[in-house]
Amino acid sequence: MPPAPCALCHTSRALIIRPKNHQKLCKACFLALFESEIHNTITANSLFRPGERIAIGASGGKDSTVLASVLKTLNERHNYGLDLLLLSIDEGIKGYRDDSLETVKRNATQYAMPLSIVGYDELYGWTMDQVVSQIGKKGNCTYCGVFRRQALDRGAARLGIKHVVTGHNADDVAETVMMNLLRGDLPRLSRATSIVTASAASDIKRSKPLKYAYEKEIVLYAHHKRLDYFSTECIYSPEAFRGSARTLIKNLERVRPSAILDVVRSGEDMAKLVPAEVSSSSQLLANTKDAVIAADEEEAQGEAGCGSANGRASGGEMATMEQKLRDEERATGKETDFTLQGQRHDRCKHPSTAKKLPKQHLQKCVRCGYLSSQSVCKACMLLEGLNKNRPKTEISVSVEEEKR
Q: For residue 178, which of 384, 348, 361, 355 has the smallest C-alpha distance?
């Protein structure tokens, strides 16, 4: 059989079959289409305004690296008028974060973007290596999630920036939707599915330009653009509940390529059914340590910190895909192919009735000055336990912080 032509230009040979819809494209058309879709997402949701300073949460992983590359390209091509810079968090994990930060530093040079690095040690007096040495690997993502969330906000505030963009992709959002459904936590869907989020504990908003981009297509884009990114899993990453949701999403994708976006769209539709007063007050549900841990397991997967989804993907699926792409590039004449069979899957119906919750009242943490619903914020409460050698201190808060 002769090589299949590109479905868009009809002249070049198709080298890529899009995971999203099985469309056969040449390299140039795939890259152009990927960038065009991100541009449409940005404009359709009015994510930016001219002259705005934007901090890109950079971990050195594929998502944040692709995000930085695409935003630089689109900013120049469409004259967004944005002032872009990279903001990284150094958790203090030797053999992982120190290596990934070297990638971020190279990215800063490659994209001609200023880089600011905020470390746990300077903010909290603890590195994650020290935290894990005291509490062990179980539950360490709770500490890291709380610390990173606040560190990213503080880093942005230090730079006078009110808008941080993160590399969350469609797979990440679908996993979060599935986690909330499995927990029966529909009120949190509004925050999980929104492309722009703002925390009651901070005046810094966050947005997800890659919200509708498939993880596999991000890998394809990074590969064909030959981007420099770090692809190693965090050495402290545990098997959390998100792993079960991820496996379920990946299994659905194998039998129905559109399953990821189907879940995202369904989550958006269900979020609209949640009463506004419940949705806006859902952060008040985090009144137990279990609720905080659940929320920060989500936070711990954020691109602003944990980095590559190569390690996060079930069974090292992204690492396998990356190796396959390298092998196929060396062997000329091969196509990048994903053979999937379309099949219907049933959607869940909205079964629960939301409760009316009281409004929250914010104040500054008496210790660090960070906005909190209590006199002492979550980070300071965790630090108190660490400093007193009581890492299992109960956490009782009434504002559940958003992820990234």
A: 348
